[in-house]
Amino acid sequence: MEETGLMPAWPTVRLMTWNVHGAVGRNPRFDLARVVELIRGHDPDVLALQEIDSRRGRGDDPFVVLQRELGRHGIGAKTIVTADGEYGQMLVSRWPMQSAEVHDISFQEREPRRAIEAAIETPHGLLRVIATHLGLSLRERNSQLQALLALARKTEDVTAMLGDFNDWIWAGSVRHVLARVLPGRTRQRTFPSVCPMFRLDRVYCRPARALVSSFVDPRARTLSDHLPVIADLIIAPASR
Question: How many CB atoms lie within 10 A of CB 223?
């Protein structure tokens, strides 16, 4: 694991984001138990997961299992619902969510997309979290970016935005615009997991100095085509 940042003087909140690719690794073998095991090893306080998929004729619903195994509080955003199951993302928290809302940020005829917004009552103060999974086309992402900017600007509270941004080119890039509002950001390469080249998965935050460390876990390469990003934030008067 590659880790960046300095030891914090204040208690930290651990965030984790991971596109689990339907919990089907390169084997390909459905292995939700190993996904849960890897996540538990990092003990995240706030967890954003993308590409959760129950459309495989299984008896156990991944949305239910992940919520039960990984956090007391959570909200799912199911973007595709069919007769054989559901697909989408979720946000899980160790602590209560003061408020939680799912926003539709879909673009025209493209795949449905959502952003989950929540205010989480951490022991160190309020943390606003926005979890998302953006589209594949440039026009689609630019449209979704405007919706995310509006959410990020709603308050001046400590804010984190995390997820799979599908952002791999500089021209018109999401990171170039988001960094103006959420200047702290992770920079690890996450995709493809077997030989990471692109920084698709990120954690952004405001203020920038709230982000004290971040790393990826290369062990996840057998479980998904993305590596998870784990980031530690301080939520304290010094960070505000």
Answer: 26
